[in-house]
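Lab meeting, item 3. Inverse folding demo.
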């Protein structure tokens, strides 16, 4: 006789009619918080009841996490969390933000961010997004500070006309925009162009890094990520350049069949 796994704490409901993405995030939070004893998830009906979503939504969320290498599923064995999955191994997929990764090891994490509008795209944005140089873009500069030390620097570029008209007006007028942990979150304000997936190029680099806020000595290696963000239709909608001080963050990659 087998006993169904019991949760260490109830899952937080995502609400009736929630998107599969929100359900996926709720499950991922529970996984990272080690709420599933023995790394085994309950059956789909129980998960659906706890999260107040349909079994179809639960199934789609589980399939998504399986494709991303977080879960493994097999007949007779159920749904299991892969043994070596952790925040360091999934941050490149942006399933969690950099803040969550840094909070694993640091007591205090702050985010300093500003947005502005520029009347042209730089060389990287022209190349990666396939846009004319005279495209007006939103530029952001964001620094994640861990225990008082800059750990991650991110610069984004997004064509201004991709954003909702009200947000365009706010940005052009120099209004404040709420700090977003992730460009994925920010993309929800881009009608029809919300980010669906990202291609990341990892480039080993050595300081100095022009424009960065990282406080690393000349000659010090660091990791540079060039990210192209795509909509569900495959259209490139934004780009990010990320500089990572590997004294604070080390990326782990989990490979699976």
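The presenter then showed the designed sequence:
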């Amino acid at each position: 006789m087998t006993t169904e796994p019991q949760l260490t704490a109830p899952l937080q409901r995502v609400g009736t009619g929630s998107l599969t993405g929100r359900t996926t995030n709720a499950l991922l939070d529970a996984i990272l918080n080690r709420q599933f004893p023995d790394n085994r998830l309950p059956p789909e009906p129980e998960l659906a009841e706890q999260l107040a979503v349909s079994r179809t939504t639960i199934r789609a969320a589980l399939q998504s996490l399986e494709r991303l290498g977080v879960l493994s599923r097999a007949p007779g064995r159920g749904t299991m969390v892969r043994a070596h999955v952790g925040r360091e191994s999934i941050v490149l997929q942006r399933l969690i933000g950099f803040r969550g990764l840094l909070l694993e090891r640091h007591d205090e994490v702050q985010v300093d961010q500003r947005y502005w509008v520029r009347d042209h795209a730089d060389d990287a944005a022209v190349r990666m997004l396939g846009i004319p140089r005279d495209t007006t873009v939103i530029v952001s500069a964001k620094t994640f500070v861990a225990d008082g030390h800059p750990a991650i620097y991110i610069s984004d570029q997004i064509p201004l006309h991709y954003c909702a008209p009200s947000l365009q007006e706010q940005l052009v007028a120099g209004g404040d925009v709420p700090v977003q942990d992730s460009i994925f979150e920010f993309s929800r304000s881009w009608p029809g162009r919300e980010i669906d997936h990202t291609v990341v190029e990892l480039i080993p680099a050595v300081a100095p890094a022009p424009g960065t806020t990282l406080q690393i000595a000349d000659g010090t290696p660091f990791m540079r990520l060039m990210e192209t963000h795509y909509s569900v239709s495959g259209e490139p909608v934004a780009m990010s350049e990320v500089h990572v001080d590997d004294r604070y963050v080390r990326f782990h990659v989990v490979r699976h069949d």
